[in-house]
Amino acid sequence: MTQWEQARTETVSPDITEPTNALPARYFTDPEIFELEKEKIFGQYWVYAGHANTIADQGRYFTRTVGDRELVVRRGEDGDVRAFENFSARTGEPVVDETPMTDAGRVDATELEDAEEVRVDSIGPLLFVNLSDDPMALAEQAGVMKERLEALPLGEYEHGCRIASEVECNWKVFAGNYSECDHCQANHQDWIKGIELNDSELEVNDYHWVLHYTHDAEVEDELRIHDAREAQFHYLWPNFTINMYGTADGYGTYIIDPIDTGRFRLIADYYFRDGDLSEEEREFVRTSRQLQEEDFELVERQWAGLKTGALAQAQLGPNEHTVHRLHQLAQEAYDA
């Protein structure tokens, strides 16, 4: 038996100063937990589906899998976006083939007449779906994030490129890594030279947290989407991020999409004023990709350690408030 199977573990403590301030290891390694997450997390909360600008025309659609359920997200003839289960009750087969947001297709409304409709809501051009019969409002889940993002001209930006990566790691390990920057000094040494971590700010809300950083040099007005010299990294539970880099006229989104207990897919999308990227924007994406690869190496090592069973329950550092909140939300979902 591994050590965590032999040892006693406790639920995540509400106080970050307690020894049991993180999830027990089995919540990252047990396949039964992943099955539970499909119902308790991805079947209950609002989950990011995609960007409205990619289906700007009537009849355009893309598909998105949430848990085990494949959905069709379509722009209707009335201009509204609706989502449906990609399953026809009449034929017993999928209505459309798998179609990514980056290569949207077209489907007639009559083909979806026998498909069950799913709830859709939005934050600006960002589309979210919910599979629950009785969900909380998206405005409640997003909190202040909704008002802040809708005050920005996100809809004026076009999709520039997508990078999708399959990573050998439980999705929550990467989510925790994204949610703090204690590792940045050691893991992102080239990037860290341009920001002032001493002036960083950590903001934790009910289902949403933000890491704010300032940059050493002032950035010209036309090269940023928000306040001067600031980068903002927003995380919305359970698995969506929006990244305001502060050094480029654009933004990015991440979907931390679980495949199974030990794998997830990171879907990184980048948005700029023009969908045709300049060389400077391509270099920006390459830098972002370098940071992703550095993080993949780190979280895969963490995942390897979790699988050994060397620890029954991890312990967070005193500054990891965002990771603590992530673990609390997961624990609350499992216990619901």
From TrEMBL:
Segments of skewed composition (Polar residues): 1-20
Q: Per the record, which residues fall in region Disordered? A: 1-23
The residues that cross the membrane are none
Spell out the SUPFAM superfamilies in the cross-references.
Answer: Bet v1-like, ISP domain
Q: Name the InterPro entries for this protein.
A: Rieske_2Fe-2S (IPR017941), Rieske_2Fe-2S_sf (IPR036922), Ring_hydroxy_dOase_asu_C_dom (IPR015879), Rng_hydr_dOase-A (IPR001663)
Q: Which cofactor does it need?
A: Fe cation
The segment(s) forming the Rieske domain are 46-107
Q: Which domain of life is it from?
A: Archaea
GO molecular function terms listed in the Swiss-Prot or TrEMBL record: 2 iron, 2 sulfur cluster binding; iron ion binding; oxidoreductase activity
| Alphabetical keyword list | 2Fe-2S, Iron, Iron-sulfur, Metal-binding, Oxidoreductase
Q: What is this protein called?
A: Rieske (2Fe-2S) iron-sulfur domain-containing protein
- Organism equals Natronococcus jeotgali DSM 18795
